Amino acid sequence: MTRLTAQAYTVAWLCALPLSEGVVATVMLDEEHEPLNLPTHDENAYTYGSINGHNVVIACMPPGLPGKVSASKLVQPLSQSFPNLKIHLFVGIGGGVPRIPTPDNPDDDVHLGDVVIGWAERTGVPGVVQWDLVRYLEDGNIKPLGTLEKPDRRLLNALGLVLRNRILGRTRFPEHLQRLQKLEGFSHPGLENDKLFKSTYHHAGGPNCSSCDRAQLVERLPRVNPGFIFHQGTIVSGDTIMKNPQRRNEISRIYHDALCFEMEAAGVMDNKRCLVIRGIADYADSHKNGSWQNYAAGTAAVFAREFLFTIQPQVINKMESAASLNCEFRS
C-alpha cells in the first residue's frame, strides 16, 4: 500500500457509526493507504486512502459513543495531526422529515434511503441548525443560537455541478452504488419496506412494524424504482433522539421546513468548509428500527464519493487550510 505524509491529506471524512458508516466510507476509497504514526495526543483511529486524486482521512467515533460531545472530541485533534486539511465531509445517517403536504411526484418527497444535503435552497436559510439550543423571546418566537450558514462558495459550485449533472444524466451514482454490493447486509431493503405511518399512530411494539396497523399508513404514490435520490435542505442537529413525529413536524416547520434530524453535526461545525451529508434511515418516529441503517449509510457515502468526483483536487489544494478559518457555527 501507498504511504503518504500527514501533510498530504486534504479531505476529512467524518462519521459516527464505525460498523456501518465507517465500513461504507472505506469501501468508497479507490485505494487504501498505509496507516501513519501520529502524535500521542491524537486518540482517534483513522483510515487513509484516496478518491479521484483526493487524499482522504476517515475518522470515526468509538462504538457506542454518538452525539455532539463525541463528535467534538473527534474533530479537535484533526487540524494538528493533518495541518493541510481543507474540507470536512460529515457523512452518515439521519431521520427524515416527509414533506407536508405530500408532493404529487414521489421523487420529491423524502423516503428511506434518500440523501439530504445540509444546503438550503432558499437564500438566507442556514444549512444546519442546532434545534435544541434556542432563546425564547417575549413575543413567543424562538431564536436559534446555533446555525451554520451555507458552505464555502467553491463547495457550492461543486454542489451546483452535481445538480446539473443529475439533470443531464451524467452522475456516477449507479456506479458508486455497486460498491455496496461488496458488503453483506448493505443492499436496498426493498420499496415495500419503506413504510410511513401517520404522525398520530404509534408503534405497536416489536423489532419491526409487522404488528402495526397498515390502515394507518400515509397514502403516497409509490416510486417506480429504487434509484438514487438526494434532496437539499436544512438539517437540524441536537442531543435528543427524535422519535415523536408530531414534535418532528413542529420543529421542522420552525426551522425552515427542515428535512432531516441528526445528533452529531453541531459538534463538528467548526468552519464553513464542512458539508453535512445524511442518508435517511428512519422517519424520526416511534417506528424507527435499524432495517435501513446500513443502506442509508451507504447512500450518504455514495453522495460523498460523487461530490469528490465533481470537485477537482486542484480546487481543494488551492484553498486555505480549514484550521486557519474562523469559527462559523454562530452562537
Q: Gap between N and C termini, in Å? A: 44 Å
Cα-atom Rg, whole angstroms?
Answer: 19 Å
> From N to C, what is the helix and strand string?
EHEEEHHEEEEEEHHEEHEEHHE
Mean pLDDT: 90
Number of helices: 8
Identify low-pLDDT runs: 326-331
Biggest sheet character: 13 strands, mixed
The percentage helix is 10-25%
Structural class: alpha/beta
- Write down how many β-strands occur, each being a DSSP E stretch of 2 or more residues: 15
Q: Shape, please?
A: globular
Features:
alpha/beta; 15 strands; disordered C terminus; 8 helices; 331 residues
What does this structure look like?
The protein is α/β, with parallel strands linked by helices and 331 residues long. 22% of the residues lie in helices and 20% in strands. It has 8 helices and 15 strands. It has helices at residues 21-27, 68-75, 78-81, 153-168, 173-177, 245-254, 293-310, 313-317; strands spanning 11-15, 31-32, 46-51, 54-60, 87-96, 115-118, 128-130, 134-136, 142-144, 147-148, 230-233, 235-237, 260-262, 274-282, 329-330. The strands form 2 sheets. Strands 1, 2, 3, 4, 5, 6, 7, 10, 11, 12, 13, 14 and 15 form a 13-stranded mixed β-sheet that branches. A two-stranded antiparallel sheet has the order 8-9. A hairpin with a 2-residue loop joins β3 (46-51) and β4 (54-60). The protein is globular. The termini are far apart.
